[in-house]
Write a structure and sequence with these properties.
about 160 residues, alpha+beta, Alpha-Beta Plaits, four-stranded antiparallel β-sheet
Length: about 160
């Protein structure tokens, strides 16, 4: 029996920042809308989400797509849908995202655990909160509480090794 969390697919660390440091989450409603987009498109493209952190000017995700094509389409759909939402809500026309998101493959379980810890501790390193559980727009509190949610997959939620 294979005990690896990375069975057949590769996980990816994704970071996407605002163009010229531009904020794209301006209120709680914006964060909630983005999380609904993650849910919608993760189901559509069969993406597993292991961790996330949404800052006002940056997004960090740990994802496991069934293939690289689905990863690219997933990111494109989420970012385009969110840009359309922002433009409608705030009467804007500008592109809020940097042209290209950054990604790298995570190929070992140890690297996956470290990446999850890294993503979930971003608000602490940014001096937004003292404890990662205090930040509402990160997967940390969802994972630690174990409560049902629509973002993290059950498989990724029940991993004691992810707890900081």
């Amino acid at each position: 029996m294979n005990n690896s969390f990375l069975n057949h697919n590769t996980c990816y660390f994704i970071s996407h920042k605002g163009e010229d440091g531009q904020n794209f989450f301006l209120c709680e409603t914006d964060y909630k809308f983005y999380l609904r987009l993650l849910k919608k498109y993760k189901l559509k493209f069969d993406i597993q989400i292991f961790a996330f952190c949404l800052l006002s000017d940056a997004i960090y995700l740990i994802l496991q797509p069934p293939n690289v094509k689905n990863l690219s389409i997933f990111i494109t759909c989420v970012t385009q849908s969110y840009r359309l939402y922002l433009n409608a809500r705030y009467s804007g026309k500008a592109n809020v995202w940097q042209k290209k998101y950054r990604s790298f493959a995570i190929v070992t379980d140890d690297a996956l655990f470290e990446c999850v810890k890294y993503v979930e501790s971003v608000p602490v390193r940014a001096k937004i909160v003292v404890n990662p559980a205090e930040y509402p727009w990160s997967s940390h509190s969802l994972r630690v509480s174990g409560r049902d949610n629509y973002i993290l997959d059950k498989q990724s939620q029940n991993r004691g090794a992810f707890h900081a």
